[in-house]
Amino acid sequence: MKHANIAVFVPHNGCPNQCSFCNQRTISGASKQPEPSDVALACEKAMQGGCEGADVQLAFFGGSFTAIDRGYMLSLLEAAQPYIKSGFLNKGIRVSTRPDFIDDEVLSLLKEYGVRAIELGAQSMDDSVLSLNKRGHTAQDVENASKLIKSYGFELGLQMMTGLYGSADEDSIDTAKRFILLSPDTVRIYPTVVLPGTMLAELYLSGEYKVPSLDESIELCSHLLEMFDKAGINVIRLGLHAQQDVCENYLAGGYHPALRELCEGEIYYRKMKYALEDKPQGNYEITVACAEISKAVGQKKKNINRLSDLGYNCKVKGDLRYKRYELTVKR
Ligand code: SF4
User: Does ligand 1 come within 6 angstroms of the Cβ of 281?
Assistant: First the structure.
């Protein structure tokens, strides 16, 4: 089934927090608050754009949906109601928000207005990392909010960042473990990207903060991806969306428009290397799922070249019966 997301970005203008990494203008490309009429317009456009037969969901992104002015929040939800009632938004509404702005009252309201999925910007489950990055909530808030969201029957999404100020790889691995215990339906992973005008930019430029490089982020995120995959949790996003303003303005960090593909390539490299480890050097044929051949080969044949450096000349072929990440090697 085709899936169509109608995304409406809701910047949290006047947000009292100042998270170390946040520069919503740079991330969104705009800081204009959408009007209810913009919500209707986005739905009308999507209707004309051929979503017939698709799963259609309206997504309010921006990270603080339940923390914005309550009247304004309800006006945006109200604008979506005709499209829910007509059945066009057959997958309802998705919102992303902060863990400390979830309670019974707001969850009852969201349920009433057809919200089906709630994503929490958790970022880390380490209180010192949360505090150093001025998140203004604790790991306990994430746990409490997650449990409450699930008790209301919403789909739960959790978002984490890697490489924040004061964070090490172990914190991110631990965050993933604690996410898995909360059984989210979806996860998003964002390696930190230093944007101008943020606290991280100041720390980075003063030399006090060293943001993980792209290669370091790929290594860590490939392990996180594998952890969630083994736990049966769907990682629906890895890395910031490719946007011109981010590409042109970011100062440093783990940004690449095809980051997920690079991380999956790294998973294949580790698996191929492990499968070949005890075998004599020589020529090998590696079989993977047909749709995974390019990931196994790696961008610009990176994996094949690395295996060749170890003395293994490999050809990769596809087999429809193989599942993702499954592979066999033979001489
Ligand atoms: S990321 Fe932090 S600073 Fe930015 S809008 Fe959300 S709560 Fe406010």
Answer: no
Whether ligand 1 lies within 6 angstroms of the CB of 10 is answered as no
Q: Report the half-sphere exposure of 85 (CA within 13 A, side-chain side).
A: 8
Residue to probe by mutation, ligand 1, list 10, 13, 17, 195, most atoms within 8 Å of CB: 17
Final residue before a domain boundary, out of 257, 285, 315? 257
Looking at per-residue confidence, does 2 or 285 come out higher?
285
**pLDDT band per the 50, 70, 90 thresholds, residue 28:** very low
State whether 272 and 237 are in the same domain. no
Q: Which residue minimizes the CA distance to atom 5 of ligand 1?
A: 12
Domain range holding 103? 3-257
CA of residue 97 to ligand 1 center, whole Å: 9
CA 269 to chain centre: 23
User: What's this model's pTM, rounded to 2 decimal places?
Assistant: 0.93
pLDDT tens digits along 41-61: 999 999 988 777 789 999 999
